[in-house]
């Protein structure tokens, strides 16, 4: 059920106790006090309580400086917060929000003590993101009044709040805290009780796979992080995010998820245990996947794993002219990128007509850039003049680099590579833009596999900064160096990866999308709630179902199948719901219906 975004009555929860005054508890206290609630902050540590008050004073002072609060409003907010080291201070609370450390023993102890302190109608909420709300409720004297209220860090800034019901929770309690969340200006999402709920349930599986990918030495930490930022528009790469969350925290969440799901994707990557046990827990300790200036600092400093800038031992081959094979959006986008960078480009397709149509598409794209003031009319005309449309691959005879961007079908690509092998001059670099097929299979279709490499551009090629550079076990060093140099000249960020299914981006993105589909399939949460949770709680530019409908459900299914075939992990098997929608012809925006329906244009 999607949560309604409006309600008639204001929440009756006026006095609220927050138990645990770490970063999250302090943030929640600030949000509550600013919304006019009386707040009792409780922590067994006097130092933690004092630090929380100081943080609240500093945050409200900044709000005054920025004109978000007046001095009087600030004074009122601070007056509404009192702190204590005694849990009995929660006696008059209408709601208690517990944000103690992620330990059943600690939380269970707090809930048992609260049972003897609070009024019978008081709602008890746990802020856990990994432990079972049902188990905590079952241990309570009033299980119907226990639920989960999961805020996201930093609580004052993050809009999402997951309202977690157990099978024991009374609907009135859910309504009361949902209304409170709305009063706080948050967007509540109603979810059931399972480890990680929606946002963390999807996020931590993805983070775990990224850690495993790094541990396998498939790609460097910098390349994994850059690939996900630039390829998916994420605010942070997964390894940098693990350092921010805390490697130990991530391991705890994953352990809880795995205990419940037995899904291998949730089994914590061994490196998380190694780093945790060595005390390398991320930013808070000054070192995790990266090394930081000091504990608590966000500034990354060089260490022994940091790549040297521009350090290439092998010089590349000279590239003056580029051939692009294909006539679709990707081919014309790639041709535009090379022509803009000053290369002479031959755009070849199976017929002169198709090639001219592709060149005309580039002309329109360049005109749009002129209209938006991104380039002059003269520069656009010069760019278009550098592109020669050809109806035969024979026109690639003199190119130094040939890039194929034809259909994602191995047989078609292999036939094309056999043709390129015949027509391209010796020493020409042959590149495939495949996103899911083995590059080595294209290489083996030629007599010069050492000259073949993957250059996986992202759509739309003129706008997307990322290129995954895929070396096979046969690729020559100078071919790799050539492509890296070319990427720099066309102003793309190159990341290195090996020749295995999904490379970096798709291997991390599609299992996440598949897990989102499984959540809907199991009636755990709605499409709208999952999309909202990932945008508001994870900083994703699009929710998983918005993205699936844009990519195309048929394309998504094909990639899922390739990943499942390659890695043989049961957790990667495509969700049956995805297969059913594709079989029914519901392929997303392109057919007017996918997970959602779209107006026909």
UniProtKB/TrEMBL annotation:
InterPro entries: 3-OHacyl-CoA_DH_NAD-bd (IPR006176), 3HC_DH_C (IPR006108), 6-PGluconate_DH-like_C_sf (IPR008927), 6PGD_dom2 (IPR013328), NAD(P)-bd_dom_sf (IPR036291). SUPFAM superfamilies: 6-phosphogluconate dehydrogenase C-terminal domain-like (SSF48179), NAD(P)-binding Rossmann-fold domains (SSF51735). Pfam families: 3HCDH, 3HCDH_N. Belongs to the 3-hydroxyacyl-CoA dehydrogenase family. It comes from Streptomyces coacervatus. Pathway: Lipid metabolism; butanoate metabolism. This is 3-hydroxybutyryl-CoA dehydrogenase. The keyword Oxidoreductase applies. Keywords: Oxidoreductase. Residues 15-193, 322-499 form the 3-hydroxyacyl-CoA dehydrogenase NAD binding domain. Signal peptide: none annotated. Residues 196-292, 502-598 form the 3-hydroxyacyl-CoA dehydrogenase C-terminal domain.
């Amino acid at each position: 059920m999607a949560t309604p975004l409006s309600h008639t009555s204001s929440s009756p929860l006026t006095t609220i106790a927050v138990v645990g005054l770490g970063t999250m508890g302090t943030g929640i206290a600030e949000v509550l006090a600013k919304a006019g609630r009386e707040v009792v902050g409780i922590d067994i540590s006097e130092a933690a309580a004092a630090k929380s008050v100081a943080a609240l004073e500093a945050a409200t002072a900044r709000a005054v400086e920025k004109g978000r609060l007046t001095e009087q409003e600030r004074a009122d907010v601070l007056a509404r917060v009192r702190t204590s080291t005694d849990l009995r201070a929660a006696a008059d609370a209408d709601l208690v929000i517990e944000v103690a450390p992620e330990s059943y023993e600690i939380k269970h102890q707090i809930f048992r003590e609260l049972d003897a302190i609070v009024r019978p109608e008081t709602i008890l909420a746990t802020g856990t993101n990994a432990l079972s709300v049902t188990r905590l409720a079952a241990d309570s004297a009033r299980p119907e009044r226990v639920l989960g209220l999961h805020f996201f860090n930093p609580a004052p800034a993050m809009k999402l709040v997951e309202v977690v019901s157990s099978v024991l929770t009374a609907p009135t309690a859910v309504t009361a805290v949902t209304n409170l969340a709305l009063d706080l200006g948050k967007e509540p999402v109603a979810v059931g009780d399972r480890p990680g709920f929606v946002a963390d349930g999807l996020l931590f599986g993805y983070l775990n796979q990224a850690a495993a990918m790094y541990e396998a030495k498939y790609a460097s930490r910098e390349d994994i992080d850059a690939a996900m930022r630039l390829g998916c528009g994420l605010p942070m790469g997964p390894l940098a995010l693990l350092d921010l969350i805390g490697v130990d925290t991530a391991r705890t969440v994953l352990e809880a998820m795995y205990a419940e799901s037995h899904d291998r994707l949730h089994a914590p990557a061994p490196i998380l245990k190694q780093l945790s046990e060595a005390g390398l827990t991320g930013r808070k300790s000054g070192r995790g996947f990266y090394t930081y200036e000091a504990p608590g600092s966000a500034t990354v400093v060089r260490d022994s794993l940091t790549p040297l800038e521009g350090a290439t031992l092998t010089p590349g081959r000279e590239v003056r002219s580029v051939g692009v094979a294909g006539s679709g959006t990707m081919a014309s986008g790639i041709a535009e990128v090379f022509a803009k960078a000053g290369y002479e480009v031959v755009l070849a397709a199976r017929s002169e007509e198709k090639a001219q149509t592709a060149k005309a598409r580039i002309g329109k794209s360049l005109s749009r850039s002129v209209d938006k003031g991104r380039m002059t009319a003269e520069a656009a005309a010069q760019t278009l003049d550098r592109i020669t449309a050809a109806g035969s691959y024979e026109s690639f005879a003199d190119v130094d680099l040939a890039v194929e961007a034809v259909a994602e079908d191995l047989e078609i690509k292999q036939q094309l590579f056999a043709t390129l092998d015949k027509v391209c001059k010796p020493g020409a670099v042959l590149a495939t833009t495949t996103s899911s097929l083995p590059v080595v299979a294209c290489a083996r279709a030629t007599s010069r596999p050492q000259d073949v490499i993957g250059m996986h551009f992202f759509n739309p090629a003129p706008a997307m900064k990322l290129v995954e550079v895929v070396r096979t076990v046969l690729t020559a060093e100078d071919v790799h160096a050539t492509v890296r140099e070319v990427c720099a000249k066309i102003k793309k960020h190159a990341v290195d990866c090996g020749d295995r299914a999904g490379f970096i981006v798709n291997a991390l993105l599609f299992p996440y999308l598949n897990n989102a589909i499984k959540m809907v399939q199991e009636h755990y949460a709605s499409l709208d709630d999952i999309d909202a949770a990932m945008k508001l709680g994870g900083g994703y530019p699009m929710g998983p179902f918005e993205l699936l409908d844009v990519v195309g459900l048929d394309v998504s299914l094909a990639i899922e199948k390739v990943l499942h075939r390659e890695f043989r992990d049961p957790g990667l098997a495509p969700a049956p719901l995805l297969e059913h929608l594709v079989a029914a012809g519901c392929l997303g925006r392109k057919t007017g219906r996918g997970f959602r329906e779209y107006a026909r244009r």
